[in-house]
Amino acid sequence: MKRIGILGGSFDPVHTGHVNLAKDALVQAELDQVLLIPARLQPFKQNRTPASGEDRMEMLRLALEDEPAIAPDSYELEQEGVSYTYLTLRAMQERFGPDAKLYFITGADSVLMLESWMNSEELLTRYSYIAGSRPGYRDEELEKCVEHLHEEYGTEILRIHNQLFDISATEIREKLAAGESVDGLIPEKVAEYIRAHGLYRDRGDQPLQELQSRGLAYIRENLKHSRYEHTMRVRDEAIKLARRFGADAAKAETAAIYHDMAKNLPQDKMDELVREFGLDEKYLGNPNLAHSKLSACLMRRDFGITDTDLLNAVAYHTTGRAGMSLLEKIVFLADAIEPGRNYPSVHEIREIAQTDLDLACIRMLERTIAYLSKKGAFIDSDTKEALEDLMKDQ
Description:
six-stranded parallel β-sheet, alpha/beta, 394 residues, 2 domains
């Protein structure tokens, strides 16, 4: 019986932690082969930050060329839509045959969340797992989880130790963008490839017109029609408010285009990204709160946007926050009063927004808190702090 390890991820770029985890799994779990399968990218196809699927596959080939039993595989890059683990494992099982035993290789944190994954029962009853962890890292919690999954589903989970699994690809990209050394973090041949192809360079100096074009291309492809139309109305409203209150209209337009880019992601994909970006657990299962933070994270990761004001305008457009910039207030309000909105106090807030931006934001925040309180829903602390902060100057 063949024993095949499957290691998924963005591999953007592949780093020493990925390679070491694959090598340790191969040896410690006595596998015949390990496949590293990069996920398909969702953002605009010409986007070069992060790297394209072709670049990521080539970097994997370079990183693994001296490891005959470990290889990259382009399966997920060749599929349409979201790269769900259960679909990949189904395809691999079909490829290797019913007698092959598949082990999905992942970190301890992901093992703890396996029951929340799409088609989790299928994943837990049909496949086995290899958990890479550092000695002493959440040992007790992981042990209880492994025991529970075995009792509940019969899941086999092998534990191995990998000292470098916690290397952050995000930090590596930031170092590369800043021109800092990444010696020891990524294989030297991968570093040479990155330099030769100009990957992960700081894109913070991109012209706003270019960012707008790329953002529009993304939302046309990825948002539902109704959400796309809403975004266009927010864009138009943000431009009007920016001109009225002396803000940069081009920046307001750019932030508005990106503000809901994560809105139509499936819930399990949102939760996966919340964990990937290290966001607060309050965003898990809460798309209304999570989408704004995730949109800002995707702007930075997938479009190379580093302008703090743009990122914050998107990140806080749902909740507001204390100390909002002029641009943040404009995007927050534009989202709330665009012509498609139709709630009881919207006409009053639109009228106030003709002359007093802060007061309009106050009325919107008051309305949000009252509405959520009436429903008994969660109220983000940022919303309360935003209202308190704005009231100080009234």
